[in-house]
Automatic annotation (TrEMBL):
<dbReference type="GO" id="GO:0016887">
    <property type="term" value="F:ATP hydrolysis activity"/>
</dbReference>
<feature type="domain" description="ABC transporter">
    <location>
        <begin position="1"/>
        <end position="227"/>
    </location>
</feature>
<dbReference type="InterPro" id="IPR003439">
    <property type="entry name" value="ABC_transporter-like_ATP-bd"/>
</dbReference>
<dbReference type="Pfam" id="PF00005">
    <property type="entry name" value="ABC_tran"/>
</dbReference>
<keyword id="KW-0547">Nucleotide-binding</keyword>
<keyword id="KW-0067">ATP-binding</keyword>
<dbReference type="InterPro" id="IPR003593">
    <property type="entry name" value="AAA+_ATPase"/>
</dbReference>
<keyword id="KW-0813">Transport</keyword>
<dbReference type="GO" id="GO:0005524">
    <property type="term" value="F:ATP binding"/>
</dbReference>
<dbReference type="InterPro" id="IPR027417">
    <property type="entry name" value="P-loop_NTPase"/>
</dbReference>
<dbReference type="InterPro" id="IPR051782">
    <property type="entry name" value="ABC_Transporter_VariousFunc"/>
</dbReference>
<protein>
    <submittedName>
        <fullName>Sodium ABC transporter ATP-binding protein</fullName>
    </submittedName>
</protein>
Amino acid sequence: MNTVEFHNVTKKRKDFSIEKLNFTIPQGYITGFIGPNGSGKTTTIQMMMNLLSYDAGDIRLFGTSHNEQQLKQKIGFVYDDLYMYEEFNIGKMKSFIAPLYETWNETLFQKYLTIFELPEFKKIKKFSKGMKMKCSLLFALSHEPEFIIMDEPTSGLDPIFRRELLEHIQELMVKEKQTIFLSSHITADLDRIADYIIFIYKGKIMLQKSMEEIQRSFYIIKGKSDLIDADTKELFIGIKQTKMGFEALFEGELSLFDGFGDEIVAEKATLEDIMYFMTRKEY
Ligand SMILES: Nc1ncnc2c1ncn2[C@@H]1O[C@H](COP(=O)(O)OP(=O)(O)OP(=O)(O)O)[C@@H](O)[C@H]1O
């Protein structure tokens, strides 16, 4: 079962276009959405949330087409920009937000308020960026959404805070079995928690795979430059020449390199390696 399905979604902007975007977000897992700046992550999320129109194609949520009521009740949208409520404190915000949700869970709200150590009666404009992110997460979680969308939840947070937030997200998955879609260009965060990865670049999907498949099939191969010729070059997705030799991204069975013995070294590729080599312009 998929929580979200994009079928041939096309969106043309002045200097940017998304052509026939196809991907799915499986139910009950954490899907990481990665891509360099300006790749179309926010545009995609806005179309998913029905905040932005598209020119062609179909977006299905929970098995049906967009439906306002369903969007509001079943989705928790987490982002750090709470400008609308800057003058409010958490208590006042709750009095506006809670009645909007049939599924509002006050016990859960109190629980996360304590866990996140957020002050209930301090104005939100006095919150740090990280506190605003936690506050957004607090409200999103308290109405027990089936699907949580997070747009860059860890950007601008310090490493300790980021790790804490990721731990909370992971805990949620274990306990509540929610579906989470998390966009980030901090790929190390997703190496840690994602079950699936969707990689977008210049409005196109470059990769959609489970983390398990990625870890099993992508490697960084290092060796002396003289090993690179027209034939070996064909094996790699991207190659970088270094002072020590070459580094290249490879997808497939490592046994292909058995004949090279210790002339090459293979390491598992990180998401950052994959993103780097797949978007490199020169080889
Ligand atoms: N309102 C808009 N009108 C026209 N073009 C826009 C608008 N918003 C964004 N774009 C363009 O669409 C492209 C994709 O932007 P988008 O914000 O979706 O990327 P992103 O992957 O979220 O980037 P980042 O990681 O930097 O947030 C960019 O080239 C951007 O300039």
